[in-house]
Amino acid sequence: MRNEEQMYALFMEIARADDRIRAVYMNGSRTNPNVPKDIFQDYDIVYVVRDTQSFIEDKDWIHKFGKILYMQYPDENPEYPNDKENHYGWLMQFEDGVRIDLTVQTIQFAREHIHDDKLCRILVDQENILPPVPEATDADYHVKKPTEAQFLACANEFWWCSNNLAKGLWREEMPYVQDMTNFVVRKQLEKMLSWKAGLLTNFQISVGKSAKYLYKWLEADEYQAYLNTYFGGNVAEAWAAVLHMCDLFEQTAVYVGNRLGYAYHAAEGKAARRFLEHVRNLPKDAKDIYLEIKK
To answer: pLDDT tens digits for 216-266?
Structure first.
């Protein structure tokens, strides 16, 4: 597997040999000093070019980067918008394990958008066609302190949508339950846990995509409790995981609310939790939903 030094040398060699390429910059995880390095980090490389069309039409030039195992042309996907005249990309997995996410951008587009991502480092710009770029930082991705309205909306969304988990689990519609859990309800839990991590670090950290770095700031047992909220296709397992999720969300929401001076609506959570537990015990031949509201 080629190392960083070899890859950067290759990027520069290709750029200097091609008069159409006027500058090179990089963004992504390799510019972020807070991301641990490992063998799966890709290279997010941008070539700033006179025009994109000649690169798009040339089907062979990308093979200069190595022997491609498989790849994707994201701007050719009819499901997504594109702006090929200004930028075009290739996602390439190579046989030696290296992955490159390569983009060509016109000079004007690069000048206008290079500051969109602060995780940016200019590798070469001999003609000074690009504006100055500050030192790469992940500050744009730091957890932001929530307003009280955001805090309350997060809690309300979690508890309200748990209703959908209840009916989905009772019906044993596991594809629906998985989608509702992971794309709606879990996102509120991620948000609340991220705010806790932010509070523990004065909001100076990023928890990464899908909150994958939460383990760095949560206690080991708390992080394990979070992992225990994941489940497979077994209904009984899913019920247990969902109730674990409710416990963890309430504990975290109380902590975050207390630290920020926001009033967590505990009664709302308790009512939603009672409904979940009632539906869990509801017979499969039930003709009515009945829930006794206990004081």
So the answer is: 999 999 999 999 999 999 999 999 999 999 999 999 999 999 999 999 999
pTM for the complete prediction? Answer: 0.88
Range of the domain at 63: 4-140
Are 230 and 248 in contact, with CB atoms under 8 Å apart? no
Last residue of some domain: 120, 140, 160? 140
Residue 71, both tokens? 């790849």
132 and 158 co-located in one domain: no
Handedness of CA 142, 143, 148, 152 (dihedral sign): positive
DSSP-assigned letters across all residues of 209-248: GGGTTGGGTS-HHHHHHHHTT---S-HHHHHHHHHHHHHH
Find out whether 211 and 193 touch, Cβ atoms under 8 Å: yes
Whether residue 168 is found in the same domain as residue 200: yes
